[in-house]
Amino acid sequence: MAKLPIKLAIIGGGSSYTPELVEGVLKRREQLPVSEIHFVDVEAGLEKLEIIAALTRRMIAKAGADITVTASLDRRAAIAGADFVMTQFRVGGLQARARDERIPLKYDVIGQETTGPGGFAKALRTIPVILDICKDIEELAPDAWMLNFTNPAGLVTEAVLKYTKVKAIGLCNVPVSMKMMIAAMMDCEPDELSLECAGLNHLVWAHRAWLNGKDVTAEVLQKVGDGAGYTMKNIAEEPWDPDFLNALGAIPCPYHRYFYQPDAMLAEEKATAQTEGTRAEQVMKTEQELFDLYRDETLAEKPAQLENRGGAYYSDASLNLVDAIYNDRKTVHVVNVRNNGTISALPDAAVIECSAVVGSWGAKPITVGSLSPAVLGLISQVKAYEQLTVEAAVHGNYNQGLMALANNPLVPDIHRAKAILDDILRENHDYLPQFHAG
Amino acid sequence: MAKLPIKLAIIGGGSSYTPELVEGVLKRREQLPVSEIHFVDVEAGLEKLEIIAALTRRMIAKAGADITVTASLDRRAAIAGADFVMTQFRVGGLQARARDERIPLKYDVIGQETTGPGGFAKALRTIPVILDICKDIEELAPDAWMLNFTNPAGLVTEAVLKYTKVKAIGLCNVPVSMKMMIAAMMDCEPDELSLECAGLNHLVWAHRAWLNGKDVTAEVLQKVGDGAGYTMKNIAEEPWDPDFLNALGAIPCPYHRYFYQPDAMLAEEKATAQTEGTRAEQVMKTEQELFDLYRDETLAEKPAQLENRGGAYYSDASLNLVDAIYNDRKTVHVVNVRNNGTISALPDAAVIECSAVVGSWGAKPITVGSLSPAVLGLISQVKAYEQLTVEAAVHGNYNQGLMALANNPLVPDIHRAKAILDDILRENHDYLPQFHAG
Amino acid sequence: MAKLPIKLAIIGGGSSYTPELVEGVLKRREQLPVSEIHFVDVEAGLEKLEIIAALTRRMIAKAGADITVTASLDRRAAIAGADFVMTQFRVGGLQARARDERIPLKYDVIGQETTGPGGFAKALRTIPVILDICKDIEELAPDAWMLNFTNPAGLVTEAVLKYTKVKAIGLCNVPVSMKMMIAAMMDCEPDELSLECAGLNHLVWAHRAWLNGKDVTAEVLQKVGDGAGYTMKNIAEEPWDPDFLNALGAIPCPYHRYFYQPDAMLAEEKATAQTEGTRAEQVMKTEQELFDLYRDETLAEKPAQLENRGGAYYSDASLNLVDAIYNDRKTVHVVNVRNNGTISALPDAAVIECSAVVGSWGAKPITVGSLSPAVLGLISQVKAYEQLTVEAAVHGNYNQGLMALANNPLVPDIHRAKAILDDILRENHDYLPQFHAG
Amino acid sequence: MAKLPIKLAIIGGGSSYTPELVEGVLKRREQLPVSEIHFVDVEAGLEKLEIIAALTRRMIAKAGADITVTASLDRRAAIAGADFVMTQFRVGGLQARARDERIPLKYDVIGQETTGPGGFAKALRTIPVILDICKDIEELAPDAWMLNFTNPAGLVTEAVLKYTKVKAIGLCNVPVSMKMMIAAMMDCEPDELSLECAGLNHLVWAHRAWLNGKDVTAEVLQKVGDGAGYTMKNIAEEPWDPDFLNALGAIPCPYHRYFYQPDAMLAEEKATAQTEGTRAEQVMKTEQELFDLYRDETLAEKPAQLENRGGAYYSDASLNLVDAIYNDRKTVHVVNVRNNGTISALPDAAVIECSAVVGSWGAKPITVGSLSPAVLGLISQVKAYEQLTVEAAVHGNYNQGLMALANNPLVPDIHRAKAILDDILRENHDYLPQFHAG
């Protein structure tokens, strides 16, 4: 790869997020000589794919860059010879997501895209597809790095690292958003701030925050408890109890609200589902509006409205990672990688989300060691759920699926777990061939 | 100790269970030469203590045994020179237990004596007292074995083993009851059946059941799923879902219903609390009736009514342990001991409940190694709760108390955790000096 | 198996030890209803096999027992339907052993049958053969227990448990000999003594010795240091330094002399090799004499001279294990089993030698947890050697063979390691097909 | 500390290496605003201390820098308010080192300053002194970073981190020298090369070498095996066997020769000791010559002859670390830190040498996880030796000292271990008060 021009393959290229990614590529032309971008998507997304490709070409032309853009349904052509394969697809589209959100609510259980039963359903649909993609990478681009954004990103990356030989790193915009929000609270530059992050995807804590060599964790916790803006576009801004934060002693991520404050989160979800619709149902409208904008042949840049979509820093997170690998930066990023002992109590083969040193050697996690019981119980419980989900998704195993949901802390009772599982299997029938084999 | 006559010190001797213990001593006269039993209790329990002592003397006389019985409020005298110290006391009595059961119900949370917030409250009251007892043992009977029955038995034993030098083993009648119930299902003698038990107190699974060298786990699970009698006097007999048991692949203990089926258990508790009263409130009546019987000077044996009290096999569990230690039997018992690596994912200093080889060397656990994620998540979560509870109880630390409840899987939301904690601290004020020190 | 008559398959039945095994079977007729013994051996051992079979039949007849004895070269027939398969064969015979002993001596390295390069060479020859045997067991007697005596017993058992599905337990007469010698020192019955044993085969320590509930470890160490008889027939009785034993704080096994006192052991070996010959060369004579005795058609019992051969308690160790499994005794034996976390610092898949509870559930090790650095360094070093040897033996891998010897603490320099490895590969050429494949 | 001027305290300031350190400080004036250097030494080193201070002042003047230089015997004054405390002292001076080298040779054991019994003796002398220094730091400069160069650096740092609250990082010039030598072999800039280093001090491997995103480990090993210059000034350049390196699969450090090739190393040491004298005896002459140069009042820079002394890159290693911490660089350095799970098989509290991310948060090790058995045996054995040595040194415990030497792989027999220990204790009597207390 060394200093040769870069080919990017974007699986799920028809995503409404793509223009941000393209903007990120153009911003980094000095350090990242991208020569080719190949967007690929499935038949059903063809129209969107073509809109995105056209907008991309206009953006490149406006920037005066020299990048070949291809858009096709031919995944193997996209992958062949790629240096980085970025996966951001959504099996079943927003319709499937809406179902993921609605099913649990029937049983008074959090209905959310990535955590709880919603994330479980998404994992069942996604994992068989990504393992297929990996077969292509193993054959056609064995040295490529896969950067996986597809949610639930930790779980999906664990399936890839357990069942394929692909060099994969899972990525999420939550840790970088945490850094931005905390820097804003502390009135400092993000780069002045160092966070010791470790946990699982959408269940990551900053165990310590450093500012200019000083441990400012307690100060940050106080600001969050005092009501400092600390959430993301797609999560209800439920305030945090200051006493709880003080007792916790670590900075939770915005998604922790689902685990620590399910009463309020569930009430909010149920109320919203009856009025504005679930998050997916809302996003469908936003998407429609975005693609209406993207179609405009005079548009040659990322429209401001994309910010409302919810994926803040998505482009920075992914392209900074490409930069760190390509240019061997050895900079610290928070990524999803094989645990390998980083968090002592979790299995070696578990994927965790943690601070890691990223360079041409990939992402090497920074040792965490023993975690406090204040966080270790939850992380162990959720990791057990994740392991069981990976096995259920790969092997189409009902029992492991049932145990997965029974172990998810958002599902309080095995009877509800079973009812939800049965609904998920029935309503996603066409996307779950692994459960119907043989 | 070797082959010398045995002195037993019974802390909380005024318990209504005591006659069963005495019966057990008398049944084992051949192998266990008990020469002295010293019952001790607190001032408030003096009347009961004397009733028990008188009944005990009548039972001994009837049996023609030669055992000195002392009943006093002098704990140090009881402990001095004891070979076995049995702890079965209840700080705050049944009134405190009734509060432990009622407080969580206000917040739609399981209200139970040993699991959930009820067990947490009991631990806060009990641990300071048992650490005091241990100081006496360290001074007055350093070679004695403490057999701890005081609930929550795992947690309390963990506090003893972390904070004192006393040789302690925690004991519970659940595992022996499981064995009896499974033997009944399988229509075999209990001794023909071997269970590989491991977990935590009141959260223990038989991971495998063997009958005559054959693994009969699946068969047992099917019988339990088909509705075989599988519960204990003090737990609602909520039926088990056969599919869930099959997926679990391990035999849960009756108390697992609180964790796996909280919906039904909570509904039952709430209903009962409004009609017959909570379990403690019911037991108060039973206790009254038992002590009325015990007072009868013609009674010289354990009355049959004691069976309704709920502590089946209590006497067998404890005296078989005394026998195994005293006579160096090297027999397998399920006890609460320091983990020391037995279950790989838990800390060395955690107390676990597992099969162990008991002899004059104490209780040596049988290796368990890596547990399946199907059980490991729950066990890790509950152990985190237990560790935090021990620290909260020993140091009177509010933050660790809050994190303990926030990590208890029966408490679904931190706001409820905090409300319950505040209620517990307020309603148990006089029993929690550690929270008011300094 | 339950209570049905027992078929024993003895692989390597032509061994001079076999009469002791037969005597053990006859002694245990009450509790072990053996109905069939099938001895099997290789072509080269046919004459010895027939001598043994004839003697066995005379012993059975004299005892009035009803046991069918078969002797054949048909391994599959021996294994088919066996309940216990006992492996006690020696690939290459005593000639190969003599080479194992002589090669290292050329380089001033301990030349011994089971430890050091001698044991390494034996493992290379043995492992391919035992894996073949295991294939037969998997096919023809999948429920049988393999009791493996073939040295190096730990290493060989590790290969079996890693690479086959056979239910195998490794066994050695060292731990039972230690118990007998220590009981003699302490002037007690062996059964009164409890040893907490853990380590590796021929590298096992009794970490604590208990007599009637008292920890007598220090007393035993003092007696060993004072010169109490503490060795086995085949090991030079080099005295132990009392200060060292006191510092060690655990009772070493007789074979530890090779690791702790190689100066004296090497000097003794070199001297003996020049006069009486190596141990193998001495044993050849003993064997000759034994078989001369066995041939005598009037002999119908184990001759007393067998005791000089060196395998004391061999029969007791193996048949007590058969008894424990068959009759579900749940008694404590020291065996070679999968670690599975028993000794925390070693890999789960490593085979260790430790106290275990043996019953119809097999051998369940008793937890050891963290070992003192005083023993952990050596055990880790030797286990690394063993792991590498298993891989070298299974895959015929030169590099792993070289690293195995380079990691063996008895081989002080990599140049000597390489020279010894090359000699071993050359001199055992015909027995090491795995190194010549493809 | 943030951006304030820096005070350095140099314990053992009279070392002949100091001018290199001063040169390093002057080279980094832009990024490291050192305002004060306080050299401290013991009475016996006063003359050297003053020579060094005078030379330092001339160097600073020549550079036109504004740095206050103090030289005193007042350790507390040096430490008070320091930002960095650098420890580079030598208890007993070169005379003691010469004894450390000579004693083992009497018993045909490697006599070397840092590994084997020589390093053990040095640790016994050094640890009580450094713990005293730490008491001063805890009191007078609790936020200071201690950078410890005093050998055996890993062992000594382990004692500091186990027994004090000082923020300490151990440092050695071996890893940076390895990087320089490998970069020379590969004909690349050191910065283009990434080494994944992990092990113990003077027992560290580069497990993988990366050049521009390519794994070049095998290529480096081939070059080392082909005879590429790969040693340091103070170690005999014994060539490496190419087959061994290939089998090892990791790049050893120059000091590994003592463990892998003791035959040749010992022969060389014995020969040299009889001719030129031991390394210490040679250094005494070099030192004399250096101080003769330093005395020259016209000298105002580090003389070229210092290079022969052996501490190449010593200044870069330490000042780059100061820079990384002070300027929060988050760059990767190889340092000695608390293991905390980095290498799974070693205890959390062990100090290891490994790649770490250094910034204002200190040094955070990069996860290593499970090491191959090819290196794990040796590392475990040496770590056991180190743990025992720390305990022996801190508590003056003979037994742990004996077990330490008995576990050192360079000491092949316990009788030699004991003889060497007794010699060391006798010949260092005045430096080992901890062995004579009470």
TrEMBL record, chains A, B, C, D:
Query: Would you tell me the protein name for this molecule?
Result: Diacetylchitobiose-6-phosphate hydrolase
Q: How is the cofactor bound?
A: Binds 1 NAD(+) per subunit.
Keywords, comma-separated and alphabetical? Cobalt, Glycosidase, Hydrolase, Iron, Manganese, Metal-binding, NAD, Nickel
Any idea which positions bind Mn(2+)? C172, H202
Residues covered by the Glycosyl hydrolase family 4 C-terminal domain: 197-411
MF GO annotations:
hydrolase activity, hydrolyzing O-glycosyl compounds; metal ion binding; oxidoreductase activity, acting on the CH-OH group of donors, NAD or NADP as acceptor
What Pfam families does the database record attribute to this sequence?
Glyco_hydro_4, Glyco_hydro_4C
| Source taxon at top rank | Bacteria
According to its UniProt record, which protein family does this protein belong to? Belongs to the glycosyl hydrolase 4 family.
> Which residue ranges does UniProt annotate as crossing the membrane?
none
**Residues with site note (Increases basicity of active site Tyr):** E113
Instruction: Specify the species.
Output: Photobacterium ganghwense
What cofactors does this protein use?
NAD(+)
- GO annotation terms (biological process): carbohydrate metabolic process
The entry marks the following residues as binding substrate, namely: R97, N151
Q: Per its UniProt record, what InterPro entries does this chain match?
A: GlycHydrolase_4_CS, Glyco_hydro_4, Glyco_hydro_4_C, Lactate_DH/Glyco_Ohase_4_C, NAD(P)-bd_dom_sf
